[in-house]
Every structure is written in structure tokens, then in C-alpha cells.
């Protein structure tokens, strides 16, 4: 038992140069900064763990303060209450994602090392041009999605800087915040659970403003890096499925090229090839590589499900509530223009993130359907009995859809996105009725 714990701890602390390089080049160090993937390399270990602990501690502290302030404000200003509760929900989402990423660190590392660091190799075959074309197509689709993390930073800056200015100058809070125990010197005024005297205001302004800025930076960096990881990993899974489909569609051409390299000559006509045992052996070798690649894809899908199941499910559930509360803040927020503006931006961002997850998940499912059709469209009827049996097994396995699920229950699909939008609007109507 003790040996297993030690082995698990050592595996957890293991570092990988390939993965570390991906964190630097593809994610611009954001997983290291946010704690999504703690840098445990010697020389950075203590600093990274200290940063992780401080981020979690400050976030948990603010979750308590925001919830306390929300309960106080509920008696006076419904718009402000819904806005503060939105921020509380977003903070609990970031802590949840961080906890899952930490617990699933090994799977996260292995996913990036095998899928992104070491692309599947069809030994003896040159697919350089095919991979170049597929990667260009992937980047054309992916680069538009990378605007979401940038938009997230804009919202964070607006929430901390612009919204308080607009609310203080043009808003009406409808209650005396000082009498209710609010400390109004900080960017987001909150009711802290201790009394702040006049001679202490300067110290607490610097200290509490620093904590709020640290929390805002942590939230933006973690959600941004998690969004980048989700885009990168699922897009790469889809790239692998496309790569597999192209190799299945070209299996006869691959078999002919292998035949030419092994037997120093071209095979006969397409119909005569399937009666040539040498060609069939080449065909079998190419088919076995397809099997290996498909098995890898199924394994990687399991790793992705292990790492992203809870974050995706939490994104759907948290996003549904945040959208409903944002609509309430917008609907009732004429007295607080800064709060209404931030709620509008948060609503748009949540819709975009859930649409992103749904579109990527739907794309994976659709590609699995394309895979099944590509298997059926090869000339399986011309093959001999053993190869027909192999193709039948591959066809049977491909009938099981590759579906990414939040909490292992909610499929990432456009249908789910539609249901989430309907649920958010229903919550808005129910709460607004009161």
C-alpha cells in the first residue's frame, strides 16, 4: 500500500521536456502561471507550488467574502446581488477546474505528450504532405477560436476598472454601503468580515486591492489556459480522426506503394490485385496500421474524457446559471450601468465558451460517422475471408460513437447547447417572475 502511494506520488511529480515545451510554445506559459499544469521541474518546483497554494487560498477567501456580500446585498439591490453571485459561481468553477487538473495531472501530461508531442507514425510510409495539409486546415479552424481567451481578459479588465467607475459616477446602489459594512476603496466594494478603521484604510486599500487583482489574474489565466487546452486537445483528436480517415480512403494506394517497395515492381490491375497473395499481405499490413491508429484514438479519447469530463460538465452547469443571472442583471441593471455592461460581456463569453465546447464535441461525433462511412466504402467485398473479418471488426467498433461527455453524462453536442440555452432562459423567466 505504501509503495503504491510512493509510486503514485513520484509519477505525479514526474516532468516531461516535451510537455513542458508545449506549455511554453502552445500555451504561452499560461498553465504554469495559473496552476493548470504546475511546473515541477527542479528550480521552479517550490515557486510553482507556492503560487498554486496562494491562488487557491486567495480564491477561497474571496468566495467566502463574495457569498457573504451577496447575502447582505440581497435585501437592497437585486441587480448587484445577481452580479456578485455570478462572480462567486465563476470563482467556484475555476477552483473546480484547478482541483481536477491537479488530480488528473498524469493524464493531462500523457495526453499532450502522445497526441501533440509525438504524432502517430505510420512506419515506413511518408505522409508529410498529408499532415501539412491537415494541420493547415486545423489551424484555419482553430485560430478563430483563440479570440475567446483574449475576450476573457477584456472582461476581467472591465470588471475591475471600468464597471466600478461607471457605477460610482452614474449608478444608484439604493442603499448606504458604508452603513452595511462595505469597504468601498477597492475596485469591487465588498463586505469584509472585520471592521476597517479610518487609520487603516490606506493599508487595507493596498492589501485588498492586491488580493482582488491577484484573484482576477488567476481567474482569467486559468479559464484562458483551460480554454486553450480544450481547443488544442479536442482539435488534435479531430485531426487524428481526419488523418485516419484519409489513410483508410487511400488504403489501396498505400498497399500499392508498399508492394512496389517490397517487390520492386508495380502490382497488376485493381481487380487482379485482390487475387495476388503478395498484394493482400501488403494490404493486411496497411490495415493493421489503421487498427493501431484507431486503438490509439480510442485510448486518447478516454484520457481526454478523464481530464475534461468534470470541467466540461461544470462549464455547462455554471454557464447556464451565469447566463440566467446575466440576463437578470441586464434586465434590472439600469441603475448600475457598469454592472449591466459587465454582465452583458460575461453572458456573451459564456455563450461563446459553451458553443465552442459543443461545436468541438459535435465535430468529433461527426468525424466518427465519416470514419464509419470511409470503412464501408473501401473494397472490402474484394478481399479474402481473413481481411473481410478484420474490416468487419473495425466497422463494428466504429459503430460506437466517439462522444465527449460532461460529468460522463452530458454529451458535448449542438443539441446540448440548445438545451442549455433553453434552460438558461427558463431560469431567467422563473427568477424574474418573483
From TrEMBL:
Pfam families: 7tm_6. Belongs to the insect chemoreceptor superfamily. Heteromeric odorant receptor channel (TC 1.A.69) family. Keywords: Cell membrane, Membrane, Olfaction, Receptor, Sensory transduction, Transducer, Transmembrane, Transmembrane helix. It is a multi-pass membrane protein. The chain crosses the membrane at residues 49-71, 83-103, 145-166, 203-234, 303-328, 340-360. It is found in: Cell membrane. One of its GO terms (biological process) is signal transduction. GO terms for molecular function: odorant binding; olfactory receptor activity. Its main location: membrane. This is Odorant receptor. One of its GO terms (cellular component) is plasma membrane. InterPro entries: 7tm6_olfct_rcpt (IPR004117). It comes from the Eukaryota.
Amino acid at each position: 500500500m505504501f509503495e503504491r502511494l510512493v509510486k503514485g506520488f513520484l509519477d505525479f511529480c514526474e516532468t516531461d521536456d516535451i510537455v513542458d515545451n508545449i506549455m511554453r510554445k502552445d500555451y504561452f506559459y499560461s498553465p504554469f502561471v495559473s496552476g493548470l499544469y504546475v511546473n515541477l521541474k527542479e528550480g521552479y518546483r517550490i515557486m510553482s507550488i507556492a503560487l498554486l497554494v496562494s491562488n487557491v487560498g486567495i480564491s477561497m477567501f474571496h468566495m467566502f467574502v463574495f457569498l457573504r456580500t451577496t447575502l447582505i446585498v440581497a435585501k437592497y439591490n437585486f441587480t448587484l446581488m445577481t452580479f456578485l453571485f455570478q462572480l462567486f459561481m465563476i470563482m467556484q468553477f475555476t477552483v473546480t477546474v484547478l482541483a481536477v487538473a491537479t488530480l488528473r495531472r498524469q493524464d493531462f501530461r500523457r495526453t499532450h505528450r502522445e497526441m501533440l508531442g509525438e504524432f502517430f507514425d505510420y512506419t515506413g510510409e511518408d505522409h508529410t504532405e498529408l499532415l501539412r495539409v491537415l494541420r493547415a486546415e486545423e489551424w484555419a479552424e482553430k485560430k478563430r477560436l483563440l479570440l475567446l481567451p483574449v475576450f476573457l481578459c477584456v472582461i476581467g479588465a472591465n470588471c475591475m476598472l471600468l464597471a466600478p467607475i461607471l457605477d460610482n459616477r452614474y449608478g444608484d446602489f439604493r442603499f448606504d454601503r458604508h452603513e452595511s459594512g462595505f469597504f468601498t476603496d477597492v475596485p469591487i466594494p465588498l463586505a469584509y468580515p472585520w471592521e476597517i478603521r479610518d487609520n487603516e484604510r490606506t493599508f487595507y486599500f493596498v492589501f485588498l486591492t492586491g488580493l482582488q487583482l491577484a484573484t482576477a489574474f488567476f481567474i482569467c489565466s486559468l479559464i484562458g489556459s483551460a480554454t486553450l487546452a480544450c481547443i488544442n486537445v479536442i482539435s488534435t483528436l479531430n485531426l487524428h480522426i481526419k488523418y485516419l480517415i484519409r489513410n483508410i480512403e487511400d488504403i489501396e494506394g498505400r498497399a500499392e506503394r508498399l508492394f512496389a517497395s517490397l517487390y520492386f515492381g508495380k502490382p497488376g490491375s485493381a481487380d487482379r490485385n485482390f487475387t495476388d497473395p503478395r498484394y493482400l499481405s501488403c494490404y493486411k499490413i496497411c490495415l493493421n496500421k489503421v487498427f493501431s491508429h484507431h486503438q490509439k484514438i480510442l485510448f486518447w479519447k478516454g484520457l481526454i474524457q478523464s481530464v475534461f469530463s468534470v470541467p466540461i460538465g461544470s462549464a455547462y452547469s455554471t454557464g447556464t446559471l451565469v447566463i440566467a443571472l446575466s440576463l437578470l442583471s441586464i434586465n434590472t441593471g439600469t441603475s448600475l450601468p457598469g454592472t449591466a455592461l459587465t454582465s452583458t460581456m460575461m453572458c456573451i463569453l459564456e455563450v461563446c465558451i459553451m458553443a465552442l465546447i459543443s461545436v468541438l464535441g459535435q465535430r468529433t461525433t461527426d468525424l466518427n460517422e465519416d470514419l464509419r462511412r470511409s470503412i464501408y466504402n473501401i473494397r472490402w467485398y474484394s478481399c479474402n475471408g481473413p481481411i473481410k473479418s478484420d474490416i468487419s471488426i473495425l466497422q463494428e467498433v466504429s459503430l460506437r460513437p466517439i462522444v465527449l461527455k460532461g460529468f460522463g453524462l452530458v454529451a458535448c453536442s449542438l443539441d446540448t447547447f440548445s438545451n442549455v440555452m433553453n434552460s438558461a432562459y427558463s431560469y431567467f423567466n422563473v427568477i424574474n417572475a418573483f
